[in-house]
Amino acid sequence: MSAQPDGPMLVAEDVRRSFEGMHAVDGVSLDVPRGEITGLIGPNGAGKSTFLAVLAGTLPASGGRITFDGEDITRVPAYARARRGLVRTFQLPSEFAKLTVLENLLVAAPRHRGDSLLGALMGKRYWIADEKRLVEEARGLLHRFGMSAKESDYAGMMSGGQKRLIEIMRALMLHPRCLLLDEPMSGVHPRVIEEIQHYLRALRAEGLTIVMVEHELHLVEQLCDSVFVMAQGKLIGSGTMASLRRQREIVDAYLVG
Amino acid sequence: MNTYYAANLLIFAGVDIIACIALNLQFGVSGIVNFSFIVFQAAGAYAAAVLSMPPDTAADYSFQIYVGGYQLPFPLPWIGGAVVGGLLAIPIGIVVLRKLRSDYQAIALLVTSIIANTVITNARPFLNGAAGLALVPQPFQDQIDTATDTYQYVYIGLTAVAVAIVWFVAARIVNSPFGRSLRAMRDHELAATAIGKNPVALKMTIFIVGGAIAGLSGAILVGFLQVWAPSTWLYPETIILFAAVIVGGRGNNLGAILGALLVPVGFEEVTRLLIRLNIGPPNLIPALEWVLIGLFILGFLWFRPEGVRPEPRRVFEGSPEPEVERVRAA
Fold it and tell me: Å from B170 to nearest chain A CA?
């Protein structure tokens, strides 16, 4: 099947993931629309993060099928999905602590001539052109995300909010077609939350597809075009946040208690 | 200081420097806790030995049993040592590096080291068992009299060339985008996977490169000592090299060199001097050496975990000064 320009970006069909008999994700099917921000909500332990990890491949699926931009990627390993443009971030800070902020971005660049043993042994002259181009690109992102002054600092020294931004910029260095964000705004200062929201809207405006697990419903309401609700490993509803608030069982399962 | 003593010191230093650079690539740069490192040095030494020795049926060699015996001229035994060290990394890497979590990798590699030593000690027909190999030919021994000062200088020169080549290779790896990927994997393996790095491929690559360099170090050592036995590569030897890399500075090639000079070479020399003082029972000083090495590792991990020469910060052309430093300076 070839990619359809207006079809869904990501399709999950009966996706399952179990841990020793416990069904963390229990047959979830959904379509992620292209060019939108899609929210994934649900109570603690609903399986949202596990589902996101299965989509990204960092956890293999126990069953079902995942299609990314028309291609079946169910058996594609995580690193290869990232190279194809399906890039995830993490709920906990996951910066490369002993790399500088700029290096955190550069390391994510795909198809760098110096990023193989042979390329490295060929010496600097072989890969310096790629490096210079990527430094410019990374500096452009740092400028856009207001972190230019920090480029030489170790990423491990940054604040929680700055680490979030580093992770998003790092993902963007891969030129992704779809970003999977796992609670990108948890534990972040309210002012930085506003910044992140602003950046995500700007990325959507550029046509990027974003899937986002988020706990704060008002953020989901402000950002997401459509929302999927999970509980106990299953999909229990979908729609806009406003329409979900009117559905009785979803309110019972999640929104109230 | 006579020439033999100096040659001994310099060649051991060269071998330890090469070994520490290799271990730094694996442990300091890539985060692989290779507790079986010494096995790769041993493999290179055995390989170089049987490549340069005549068959065990030869007149002077019939008191030992071993495989091979190809009488290859220099530099083939050294190259063979490196190749065997690299090849050995493939099966061990496939078993250990693919599925296990990194702390279990360390344990599995330590066990590998003990198993390898036990097997070689007891399987006599393979590499002459516990007695080990003796009368290993030296490079150019047909051309130059090995009992002369000149030969000592030649061997020092050959070792220095090997150190230079290894340094060159390691520097190119560490300072390249490939080295950056290795460091990223070390810092956060899952995040590295999420940005398109294949951690198994990265680890296997550097395990093989490190294995080959370790093999070369063993080949150099056996060509000089002319003997090689299981008692020379017990697993604590690996711990000494870890101490060197930690003390010198993880992730820094220069630190690896410094660590090699401080720990394996320095401790040997200090012990040698102290033994002459005749304090306490005869084994006291060598035993204290181990205590000291342990304390050295602990002390550095506690007070200066980055080592004497920390990993350098990569600052790019046109980069601003790191902000943290600016704030501290103000």
Answer: 9
Q: What is the pLDDT of residues A68-109, one digit of tens each?
A: 999 999 999 999 999 999 999 999 999 999 999 999 999 999
Query: How far apart, in Å, are the Cα atoms of A146 and each of A162, B7, B110, B213, B274?
Result: 10, 58, 47, 44, 60
- Asked if A155 and A104 count as a contact pair (C-beta separation under 8 A), the reply is yes
Query: To which residue do tokens 């560490």 refer?
Result: B174
All structural domains of chain B with their residue ranges: 3-234
Calculate the dihedral angle through the C-alpha atoms of B195, B198, B199, B200, rounding to the nearest 10 degrees. Answer: 170
- Using the beta-carbon criterion (under 8 Å), do A58 and B320 form an inter-chain contact? no
* CB burial of residue A109 (10 Å; 0-12, 13-18, 19+): buried
Q: Least CA distance to A152: which residue of chain B?
A: B322
Contact B148, B67 (CB under 8 A): no
Nearest chain A residue to B251, by CA: A98
Do the beta carbons of residue B93 and residue B26 sit within 8 Å? no
The count of C-alpha atoms lying within 13 angstroms of the C-alpha of B107, restricted to the half-sphere facing its C-beta, is 5
Q: Cβ separation of A97 and B188 shorter than 8 Å? A: yes
Assigned token pair, B120: 């070689």
Token pair, residue B316, equals: 């790019």
Whole-angstrom Cα distance, residue B13 to residue B28? Answer: 20
Q: Give A92-95's long-range contacts (Cβ < 8 A, gap of 24+).
A: A93/A160, A93/A163, A93/A164, A93/A167, A94/A163, A94/A167, A94/B188, A94/B190, A94/B191, A94/B194, A95/A155, A95/A156, A95/A158, A95/A163, A95/A166, A95/A167, A95/B187, A95/B188, A95/B191
The residue written with tokens 């009966």 in the block is A14
- What pLDDT digit, counting tens, does each position of A121-149 carry? 999 999 999 999 999 999 999 999 999 99
The DSSP H or E segment spanning A17 is: strand A10-19
Q: Which of B176, B190, B200, B311 to mutate: most A Cβ within 10 Å?
A: B176
ipTM at complex level = 0.93
Nearest CA in chain B to A114: B177
CA atoms of B125 and B133, how far apart (whole Å): 11
Q: What's the rounded mean pLDDT across residues A212-226?
A: 91
Torsions phi, psi for B26 (to 5 deg): -80, -50
| Sign, Cα dihedral of B292, B293, B294, B298 | positive
Distance separating alpha carbons of residues B7 and B14, to the nearest angstrom: 10
Task: Please state the pTM of the whole predicted model.
Answer: 0.93
Residues 6+ apart with CB under 8 A from A194: none
In chain B, which residues touch A (CB < 8 A)? 169, 172-173, 175-181, 183-184, 186-188, 190-199, 205, 209, 251, 311, 313-317, 319-324
Judging by beta carbons within 10 Å of its beta carbon (0-12, 13-18, 19+), is residue B190 exposed, middle or buried? middle
Picking from A110, A123, A135, the nearest residue to B316 by CB comes out as A135
Q: Of B323, B275, B231, which Cα lies nearest the Cα of B38? A: B231
